[in-house]
Amino acid sequence: MNARYDLKQIMDIDKWHKLQDSMSLVTKMAIITVDYKGVPVSKHSQCQSFCSEVRKDPALSSYCQKCDARGGLEAVRSNKPYIYQCHFGILDIAIPIVVDNQYIGAVMAGQVKLSDPDVPIEQIVTRPPNAETDRKFEVLQPEYRSLPLLSYEEVEKIADMLFHLCNYIVEEAIRKSDMLQLYRSSLTLESSSVQALQSELSNTLIENKLKRASSVYEAVHTLLQPAFDYIYSHKHDNAGLKEMAALCHVSPSYFSRVFTKETGENFSVFVPHLKIEWAKELLETTELSVNQIGDELGFADTGYFIKTFKKFESLTPAAYRKIYRKKR
């Protein structure tokens, strides 16, 4: 499998490692980042002394590598964090980094023990009985006992947090990398081609923004997906809460509660807010008049469109376009 993106090229690894160190301190987990081949792109943050000693042993480190490989594979298959136990019964997590449905790397976290050991967690690699291994384990008992203890609930929350945080940071890094690449390309173009490039850049930004928004909501709550699919494909319409609830096959009151919980905004605020974001893109990237943009997005009249725009942006659409074009 070839990845479109190289983590080392799109990210400032030094800054990433500082962030990784901070996440490790907060979560009490050892963390390392690998590319899609499983090759580390960062140093290990807070590697526990027990695991460090085990990985120095040629016979035991091969089992550690098998755990990493199989854990990463399971995470990619499910496209979500995979929690498992290593060959020493220590808890680890493989957190996939997936952009545009393509696996580009993973964050490997863990080296902790469960405070509630009765929770059934798969041990993906086992070792055959070996007297020498048992002796080494006995020598490392103090280090093993000093491993951090976490509840399974804490582990699940940490895994979810790392999954969303890491994927968001990588997506933003890729977006900036793509923009920089387009800008560099513009330096070699004839002046007649600059306008075409600007249009391509704007379209890329709009597409990425809508794609990120759609994928976020799909990941957050699939119940709402029919509503978001409709909203994004019918920008001119002004469907109400009852219609969207019926589309999702739930009551209006339940739809409203779930929508507000997952998006952070009431439905009546979210939709006009989203339309204003679309309006800003049209003001930046087209020559459509304010009246045409308002009509394109289903506002009853130009006056209402201007009033709504000013409510969210604290200035009129015309003023926004003028300020944006001065900055270019």
From TrEMBL:
PROSITE patterns, A to Z: HTH_ARAC_FAMILY_1, HTH_ARAC_FAMILY_2
Q: Which SUPFAM superfamilies match?
A: Homeodomain-like
Q: Which InterPro entries match?
A: Homeodomain-like_sf, HTH_AraC, HTH_AraC-typ_CS, PocR_dom, Tscrpt_reg_AraC-type_HTH
Q: Which residues form a coiled coil?
A: none
Q: Which UniProt keywords apply?
A: DNA-binding, Transcription, Transcription regulation
Q: Where is the HTH araC/xylS-type domain?
A: 225-323
Name assigned to this protein? AraC family transcriptional regulator
The organism is Paenibacillus glycanilyticus
